[in-house]
Amino acid sequence: MKALLVQVGRLRANAKIVQRLAGDTSVYAVLKGNAYGMGLVETAKILREEGFVRFALTELSDAIALRAVMPDVEILMLRSTPEPEFINGLIDYNLVGTIGSQEAAVAMNGIAKARGTVIEAHIEIDTGMGRYGFEPDDIKGMLQVYRYMDGLALTGIYTHFCESWKSEKRTRAQLDALNETVAALHRENIDPGLVHAANSSALVLYPWSKCGAVRAGSLFTGRVAAKNKLGLQRVGAMISEVGEVRRLPAGYTVGYGSAYKAKKDRQIAIIPVGYADGFCVEKAHDSYRIRDALLYALSSLWRGIRGKKLYVTINGKRARVLGHVGMLHTVADVTGMRVSAGDRVLMEVNPILVPSEIERIYE
After folding, report:
1. 289/192 Cα distance (integer angstroms)
2. What is the pLDDT of residue 298?
3. What is the DSSP secondary structure assignment for residue 48, as one 8-state letter?
């Protein structure tokens, strides 16, 4: 048996911290990636009970699932695209779109007019993320959308911070670029509507970045990148059972690479959970700049020097993991503990790294 436990109490506590940080500012609860792995619909229901009425997603399939259970909330789609299927979905499910290019605007406007309706949308400005968005000084291009595309109801404008967990200077520069664009539109007698920029890290570190709304996502999981002392609680634990208990004789090794060798007899528990299930997994290092490579190496060296150990919890007691975690198995030292096959095991995991086919349970 294995399942991802989503601790509802922790999620609710984190949600209250988000609300406290936001104050009177509106909050978009960003639930992309299956609500960061916690389960889209159930997580949204919990947050709705906590008072959240604005949500943000990227996938049309997620928006359809959420709209089926929440017909009255605002759903902002954080993707700019000219794809007809996506645009028709905005109309069919009453979603708020994002426009980050002339191509997307033309396609969205054309489909809206052909269907005799109007699509609500926000303009996105690319101030450094390098994905979707108009360049901040492309005022002429944006004015064409505001003034000549009557199939669109433009009610907001936003950007996305790219280094808010570590660089106040870069974050402030991005916000300044957005504000300059907004000011330029005002000079053209255009009201761009709701302005938003702050993501989870910016909400924690830079209160001045809140604008008219904020977009919080990882904060709900308690795993925000920014260092803080907010009392956030990490959400997510793999529930499993001990598969077998056996003696490991002195001199025997554990796992691939023989990373652990028993100096004396140990009692071990074999748990049928491994890295394929999201345990002891981290995001791959995908940047190859010399600076980043050095930071990764120094981080790994520091972990080695500290000798940080990995633990699981069996019957409420911690048990040290021995050797490398396997694809589908983990070995824990239970010497001196009363442990039997079938006993419950808790293993901390990041929900976003747990495969979607593994059941989510809420307690």
Report:
1. 38
2. 44
3. H
